[in-house]
Structures are given as structure tokens and as C-alpha cells.
Amino acid sequence: MTHRTVPVPLPGRDYEIRIGAGLIADAATHLAPLLRRPRVAVITEARVAAAHRAELEAGLGDVASEWLVLEPGEATKSWDGLRRATEFLLEGRFERTDLVVAFGGGVIGDLAGFAAATARRGMPLVQIPTTLLAQVDSSVGGKTGINTPQGKNLAGAFHQPSLVLADLGLLATLPERDFLAGYGEVVKYGLLGDAAFFDWLEANWQAVKAREEAALMHAVHRSCEMKAEIVVRDETEQGDRALLNLGHTFCHALEAATGYSDRLLHGEGVAIGCALAFELSARLGLCPQEDPSRLSAHLAAMGTKRSLADIPGDLPDAEALMGLMMQDKKVQDGRLRFILARGIGGAFVTSDVPGDAVRDMLAEALAAR
Ligand SMILES: NC(=O)c1ccc[n+]([C@@H]2O[C@H](COP(=O)([O-])OP(=O)(O)OC[C@H]3O[C@@H](n4cnc5c(N)ncnc54)[C@H](O)[C@@H]3O)[C@@H](O)[C@H]2O)c1
Ligand SMILES: O=C(O)C(=O)C[C@@H](O)[C@H](O)[C@H](O)COP(=O)(O)O
Ligand SMILES: [Zn+2]
């Protein structure tokens, strides 16, 4: 089976992202160099298990697997989910050197990754991402964690995987809404640092939407390349890694405001958040006035959510949204930090943003719903 590889050359913890259709049919071969004994702990959820468990079990061949199958959805990324995943590893007598396999979307990747980071003070982890979002973003870079009642991803750890197997074939069963949400993170990469990639997406979105293999390969490969490059530069987000947070300050507040429910998926919030970040950048005179409209037109063509008007139900007022944003992990000395842009492909991190400009923009966007 042919695949492409993106290296993540972190000193002492380097690993590969392998991207291709049908990779899990050879899971045993891919995992072999990482196994001390032929036994793995697979953490997944019910929808992924229903669609792809048999395929992964067949691919594991003689490698014995024990499975924890959790409930699908963002609510699983919780203290209770973490307790269940940790107890599964400990009660199953998995040893410190046994492999934990996160088989699912970003929810499972973040949760299983956090459990692997802490159980027996750290077990090796392989990510087998099953959503577009997880293949382009969450399986790479080592951010793991859960949501807490105070906000999004507020407890977690950096724990790099030993391998990422992004099997493009798994995306065939992904519901359209989840696929389009994942596209929010794909567009993010073009916006934050690669205008040519954004141009490519504008020219090729139909092929991506139709899930044509070559288009998926390019979208996943380029996204992973960009993420790997940033993560290697700044693994623990002391600086530049925050670029990957483009749109996320707004997104995480909106996810909290909608109760981490089906009203707003993470990737949808990212797309809306990126649109707000570009609107804010244009209002502050940082980027060309036409960039927000160009972005909005692209998201509309693809069918991805793009504004607060696309979120069903009530939302809190601008002041309350600002309050939710203050739980962001980028807050420093009580000040919000934003990722803004000088243009498509030209994002930068700044704390120099007048609160009134953010509040006014949100109030106008809420009034327009
Ligand atoms: N760690 C990171 O760097 C990082 C990056 C981006 C997002 N995230 C996190 O990722 C989460 C969102 O991830 P997501 O969008 O993958 O959501 P998800 O894991 O909830 O998956 C989305 C939906 O698709 C279903 N599904 C998954 N794979 C499937 C398949 N192959 N076939 C059919 N159905 C399938 C799931 O059951 C679920 O209903 C959020 O919690 C977000 O905070 C983390
Ligand atoms: O890997 C990163 O760094 C990111 O910011 C990727 C984001 O897409 C992702 O949603 C991440 O979990 C957000 O990080 P957080 O630190 O704001 O929780
Ligand atoms: Zn994200």
C-alpha cells in the first residue's frame, strides 16, 4: 500500500505521520517496531467501532487488542471519560511500555492521549485518526486533554504520539457535517501561513468535498506538514505554536456557550472563529478589506458554517462571550491574546487588541443573527 510520510523531528521523540488509503489493513506491520509484546489497548467510541472495528482487528492480525468503546461526542472528553479510560488501562493490567491506540476523531485522540500521558506516568501512544479534523490536526503535535466545567481543554498534557496512521479510507463513512467541520481546520492552515494552499483550496474544494483520494491526500499532507513544522519550532506553545490557535479564542467561547453540544462542532467553531479573526483584522486596518469577504465566500461555497448566524438557538451577549474568552489559555497578565492577520497566509500573535473593538464586532455579529 503506498503512503506518504510527514516526519515530526522532535529531538528524542521523533515520529512519523503516515498518510494513505487502506493503512490500517497493515496495522500490525506499522506497529511492530513499537511493540514490546503483542498486546495493545484500543480506546475508541461506538460510531467508529461500528464502522471500522472489524477492519482494525483484522489489520492487527496476531496482535491481541482489548477495546474500550465510549459514547461518541464532545461530552466524552470529560473527567468521567478520563476516569473510565484510565481505569480501563489500569484494570486491564496494561504495563508502562504497552501501547495505547487512540482510534477515533479528536475527542478520542485528546482523551486517550491524556489517559496515556498520565496512566503509570506515561504510556506510549499511537494515533489512528478517523475524522478529517483528526487527520489534519488533532492527532499531531501532542496536545491532549479534556473539557472542564470552567472551559474548553482546560486540563491536559503534552504527550506526543509515537506514530500517526492517517488512513484516508476511514473518511468514507464520516457524516457530511463532520467532514465539513474538519474542513474548518484545513482552511485554517492556508489562512495562518500558506496563501498558496488557500488558493489551492479555492480551486479544488469540489474535489475535496467529493473526497477524491488525491485531493484528500494533498489537503491532509499539506496540513500535517505545516503543523509538524510549527510544533517542532515550539512544542509547548511558548510562542509561534499559538498560530495554530487562529480562530480558537472565539471558537472555544462559542463551544462553551453552546454547552459542547451538537449546536456547534469544534471545526465549525474554528471556521466561524477564523472569519471573526479576519473581520477583526480588517477593522483594525491590519489586512486588506476584501480578505474577510474572500474567506466567507470560500466557506459558503464549501458549505461550512461561517458566521454567528449559522449557530442555532440563543447565544449570550457580547460581554458574556468576552467573559468566556477570558478562560483562554493564551490569556497573559489578564489580557487576551489573539491571532490576527496581515492578509491570507499572514497570521501573527498579538495582545495589542482594544477590547472595545472585539466587543463591538461581536455585538454587531449577534445583532445580525
Ligand atoms: N489536540 C489537538 O491538537 C486538537 C486539534 C483540533 C481539535 N481538537 C479537538 O478535537 C475534537 C473534535 O474532533 P472531531 O471533529 O474529530 O470530533 P469527534 O471525535 O467527535 O468526531 C466527530 C463525529 O464523527 C464520528 N466519527 C468519527 N470517525 C468516524 C468515521 N470514520 N466514520 C463515521 N463516523 C465517524 C464520531 O462518532 C463523531 O460523531 C474537539 O474536542 C477539539 O477540541 C484537538
Ligand atoms: O495544536 C495546537 O496547538 C492547536 O492549537 C490546534 C487546535 O486546532 C486545537 O483545537 C487545540 O486543541 C487548541 O488548543 P488549546 O491550547 O487552545 O486548547
Ligand atoms: Zn482546533
From TrEMBL:
State the needed cofactors, names only. NAD(+); Co(2+); Zn(2+)
Q: Which UniProt keywords apply?
A: Amino-acid biosynthesis, Aromatic amino acid biosynthesis, Cobalt, Cytoplasm, Lyase, Metal-binding, NAD, Nucleotide-binding, Zinc
Name all 3-dehydroquinate synthase C-terminal domain ranges: 182-331
Q: Which InterPro entries match?
A: Dehydroquinate_synthase, DHQ_synth_AroB, DHQ_synth_fam, DHQS/DOIS_N, DHQS_C
Q: Where in the cell is it found?
A: Cytoplasm
Biological process (GO) annotations held by this record are: amino acid biosynthetic process; aromatic amino acid family biosynthetic process; chorismate biosynthetic process
Q: What is its EC number?
A: 4.2.3.4
Domain of life from the UniProt record:
Bacteria
What GO CC annotations are associated with the protein?
A: cytoplasm
The similarity comment for this entry is: Belongs to the sugar phosphate cyclases superfamily. Dehydroquinate synthase family.
Q: What is this protein called?
A: 3-dehydroquinate synthase
Annotated residues for binding of Zn(2+): E185, H248, H266
How the cofactor is bound: the record states: Binds 1 divalent metal cation per subunit. Can use either Co(2+) or Zn(2+).
Pathway assigned to this chain's UniProt record: Metabolic intermediate biosynthesis; chorismate biosynthesis; chorismate from D-erythrose 4-phosphate and phosphoenolpyruvate: step 2/7
- Record has Cell membrane as a keyword: no
Q: What is its main location?
A: cytoplasm
Q: Give the first-level EC class, as a single word.
A: lyase
